[in-house]
Amino acid sequence: MVYFVRTAGPRDVDQVHKLLIETWHSSYDAIYGVEAVDKLLRSWNSPSAIKERIGRKGGEYIVADSGKDIGGMGFAAMYPKMAKTAMLHQLYVRPSCQNEGVGRDIFAELEGCFPDAEIVRVEVALPNIRAQSFYQRLGFVEVDRMEEWGAPNSGLPAVIMEKRLALV
């Protein structure tokens, strides 16, 4: 199936929410357990959280859309704690669409959305080796590790990865 990357809007909230439920369970159930994943989904990826991110000023929220379904999503914004750094907060691809270039296309679009950025940074759950490998293929390298992925007191360790952007 062919997917086109476009800016997300309020009408996408329900489909994105379903995509995140499917993708998170596929990615994290074996790592954290179903109950913990359900809890994280409710707090981090609720429909209201998705709607807020879509409308966030200075952020870019995009989806890969086939015209029939949403195959992936990505959200990034400039990182206020580090100059000239864009933070990739989310990039998830429906399991049935993985390994088809959807994630690469989403990232390519996001990468061009921040002309003042010199670096793109992402935090990846430490046990999520598949995601780390994906980002390495895009040119990211590990720069640090942290004990609290996603939120304070999460207890979820993460790898911090960065990609230096080409200056035009």
From TrEMBL:
Q: Which InterPro entries match?
A: Acyl_CoA_acyltransferase, Bact_Acetyltransf, GNAT_dom
Q: Where are the transmembrane segments?
A: none
Where in the numbering of this chain does the N-acetyltransferase domain appear? 3-166
Q: Which domain of life is it from?
A: Bacteria
Q: Which Gene3D superfamilies match?
A: 3.40.630.30
Keywords annotated in UniProt:
Acyltransferase, Transferase
Q: Name one GO molecular function term.
A: acyltransferase activity, transferring groups other than amino-acyl groups
> One Pfam match, by short name?
Acetyltransf_7
Q: Which residues form a coiled coil?
A: none
* PANTHER family attached to this UniProt entry: AMINOALKYLPHOSPHONATE N-ACETYLTRANSFERASE-RELATED, AMINOALKYLPHOSPHONATE N-ACETYLTRANSFERASE-RELATED-RELATED
- Name the chain's protein: GNAT family N-acetyltransferase
